[in-house]
Amino acid sequence: MPRDPRADAYPMPSVPYGWYAVLRSTELRPGRVVSLHYFGRALVAFRGTDGRASVRDAYCPHYGAHLGVGGKVVDGTLQCPFHGWRFAADGRCVKAPFAARTPKVSLGGFPVREHSGLVFVHVGPGEPSWDVPEIPETVSRDFARPIDDVCRARVHVQEMRENIVDESHFHFIHGQSEPPVQELRTHGPFAEVRGRIRRRVLGWDIDNTFDAFMYGPGVMVVRAHGPVLSVTAVALTTPVDDRTSEMRMLYYLRKPPRLPFLAPALKLVFRAEALAEVREEVRIWDHKIHQPRPVLLSHERGIRALRRWYAQFYPPSDTTAGHLPDPA
Question: Of the four listed, 54, 144, 159, 319, which is most buried by Cβ atoms within 10 Å?
Answer without folding.
Answer: 54
